[in-house]
Each structure stands twice: as C-alpha cells, then as structure tokens.
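Exercise 3.2. Students should predict the tertiary structure of the chain below and write it as structure tokens, then compare their answer with the key that follows.

Predict this chain's 3D structure.
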Amino acid sequence: MASSRNEHRKEHFLDAYKIPHPEWREFVCGWGAAFINITVTFPINKVMFRQMLYGMHTKNAYIQLKAEGFHFLYRGILPPLCQKTISVSIMFGMYNHYQQVLNSMVPQWNTHLKNSTAAAAAGLTEAVLAPFERVQMLLQDNHFNQRFRNTAHAFAELRQYGFREYYRGLTPILLRNSVSNALFFTLREEISHRMPSQDHWTGKLISDFCCGAMVGAFISTVFYPVNVVKSHMQCTVGGPFNSLWKASRIVYEERERSLRKMFFGVHINYTRALISWGIINASYEMLRNLLTKPPH
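Answer key:
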C-alpha cells in the first residue's frame, strides 16, 4: 500500500511539473540571425576593440588596421563566428525553454519576473562559450599577431596554462550576460508592443530592426565599461587572475582616473550595436516567421 501511494505521488509530481522539450526553431533562428550579423559587423567590431584596448581614437584605430592590410582584417573572425552564432542560438533558444519551464514549475509568478529570470538564466548558460571570446580577444590584439597563428593554435597554446586560463575574465561575462539579457528581452517586448502594427513584411522588418537597434545600443552603452575591463583581463596570458574589482581599478588608473576615457570607443560601439542588434532582431523574427509559417 505504501509503495503504491509513493508511486501515485511520484506520477502526480511528474505530471504537475512536466519539463517541456526545447523548441529547436528558436535555436535555429538565433544561430542564423547571428551568422548574418557577424559577417556584416566584424570590421566595425575590430576598430572598436582597438579603441577599447589602447584608448585610441577612431581615426588612429582605422589607420592601424589599414596598415596591417586586408589579410589581417578578418583575422579572428572564426572564434566569434563559432561563439556568437552558438551564443545567440542559446540566448533565444534557452530563453524560450526556460520560459516554458518556469510557466510549468511556477505559474503563479509574475510574468515579468518569469521572463527576466528566464533571460538571466539563458545569459548564464551562454557563459560556457567564454573560451571562444577569450581567444577572439587574443587574436584581435596586434601584440599577439606573431605569437598566435590562428584560432586552433591559440587554443593549443593556452592549454599549457591550465583549463582555468580559457575562462579568464569569466566574472564580467557572467555579470554582463545575465543582466543585459534580462534587460534586452524585457525592453524588447515592451518596445515591440508600442511600435505601430505593420501589415507588409517590409514594414515589419524595419520595425523589428528599429526595436532591436534601440534596445541593443542602449544596453551596449550601459555595459561598455564592463567590456573594457573584460578585454583588459582577457588580453593577458599567464600570470595571476585579477578580480573584477582589481582589474577595474587597474584600467581606471591606466585611463588617468578619467571616466570619459573609460568610454573611449563608445560612439563606434553604439553604432555597431545599433546595426548589430537591429540585424539580429530583424533576422531572428524573419527566420522565425519563415519556420513557423504553416504549409499551404
């Protein structure tokens, strides 16, 4: 009798808290949106990275890249292509999945709380790809042009420093991913609901682009100093691992205790984010409509 009651309770629990399967279309749409975006914005991102790392002006960063030649312009694109496509795939796919899980497990929660929690959890999940971001930083830094030949070589060289070396700069990534994801999905939903409704697909595409561009540019600007510190942390090979607070103090001192200099390159970052997140949001919605459209 006791065994029968336990089995009944177990079945009741599993029925009540049945975990839904992830929706594959969400992952595919996120991957495709990121692929389209990276091929367009990578050169802009490289100019911004040089400004973040060395505190130089846009013109000087452009001259530096031009002097290196086209051969080096797309050097380092493989890590973000691998990392960002999978990252955005996880971002949209796991956000949708965590939403379903929370709706099943805690339906009494406020909708905004569930969505923010799902978004933050998706951002934390993305952090498993931090080694790709780490290697991208090294390949974009001209100090390592001769030391690391390509992505595979950089990964192989870091192995001698131990597994932890691949995740240098993880703390700012976790902070950035969780909070920025929560902001992105919350603001994206709020703005999209307030945008004029569009009947034609071109109007819908422009509307989705503007929505993603505004939200992405705002969040990228707010978290720009965090990315500056992260870049500084990740462009070190070997040696001690500084905390986020200590690394922030070092960068602040290097920038002559100037908050303005902590934002060197923010204008091009803002421009890149406008284009990048506009493309991602519009591409994601376009691909999702194509994949979910019922057959005629």
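Discussion points: The CA atoms of residues 131 and 167 lie 6 Å apart. The chain has a mean pLDDT of 86.
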